[in-house]
Amino acid sequence: MPRPIARVLTLLELLQSGGIRTAAELADRVSVDERTVRRYVDHLVDLDVPVESVRGRYGGYRLATGYRMPPLMLSDDEALAVLLGLVAGRRAGLTTAMGTASETAAAKIRRVLPERLSRRLDAVSGSLTFTVPPGEAVAAESTVLLSITDAVRHHRPIAIRYTAADGRRSERTLHPYGVVAHSGKWYLTAADLTAEDDRTFRLDRITDVRALPGTFEPPAGLDPAKRVLTGLATAPYQHEVTLRVQGTAEEIHARLPAGVAIVQEQPSPGGAEPVTECWSRVDLRVDRLDWLPAVLASLDRPFVIDRPDELRGLVEAFAERLTNSARRTSARA
């Protein structure tokens, strides 16, 4: 690369690190005089890189917001972090409908990597394995995601078109509270003014978003992630299960996460020691019961089944299978 071009790119990298850089500082870092720095800045402006000149005692140069992405200079660690982030995002299933964008972005970075760094990245990619299978990608439209997050940030009401799981379509007016990524899907938690209730919506089922006039005030102490998990745990399913388990909510959630079960710690009976006698109510809504006996056994805590009675029989059958297996000997096997 010709030396003047290399110095212009070095200047761009310094400006992209943020803040205002004086002409003297830039001249020292690039090893040129201040007049040459001004000429390099003019080159960047000619390339539509939005470099601003700041006047005054503490003035200098800085990057302003532009109408398009300028050439981006990344250090070795930054390039590696971006590429690993793209890999992790694809594994988690958190992509948009423009899913190829992550692949093309990674390809562009790879094409310009120095050979030494490219070899190191190939070593990381070839050695990296994951303990869980890839997330099931359910893509949301990038325009929908950007429009909703902008409304969340500025507390603006929105109108959306939504398709429910059963195929019913509707138009709704919302006060959007937050966007939550969970299990490879994007969720919006919002006040549904149409239904006069708080609801959770899948972003991949939203086809249109329009910002409405005005603003709203979100509820105090708002926790969007908790609202989404609670909404998932209380969604209608075939079976409603209620248990009482000896243990704290934290201990029970280690096996039954918040997206599956709602756990409420119960007050200890009069005079009981709360550390040893704490019981919690656990509510679940599930389509199948056959997986619950093994999970309850893994809790390794006393529990009482309030409902349904069908679960009692499944637990008894599971316990009998375990007992029979424990009594087998190697000779009999």
3D architecture notes:
The chain is α+β, with helices and mostly antiparallel strands and 333 residues long. 41% of the residues lie in helices and 23% in strands. The protein is built from 12 helices and 11 strands. The protein has helices spanning 3-16, 23-30, 34-46, 76-92, 100-112, 115-127, 142-154, 224-233, 249-253, 274-277, 292-299, 309-327, and strands at 51-54, 60-63, 158-163, 169-182, 185-192, 197-202, 206-211, 239-246, 261-266, 279-286, 303-307. The chain has a 5-stranded antiparallel beta sheet with strand order 6-5-4-3-7. Strands 9-10-8-11 form a 4-stranded antiparallel beta sheet. A two-stranded antiparallel sheet has the order 1-2. Helix 1 (3-16) packs across helix 3, helix 2 packs across helix 3 and helix 4 (76-92) packs antiparallel against helix 5. The longest helix is centred in the last third of the chain and has 19 residues, at 309-327. The model has no long low-confidence stretch (mean pLDDT 82).
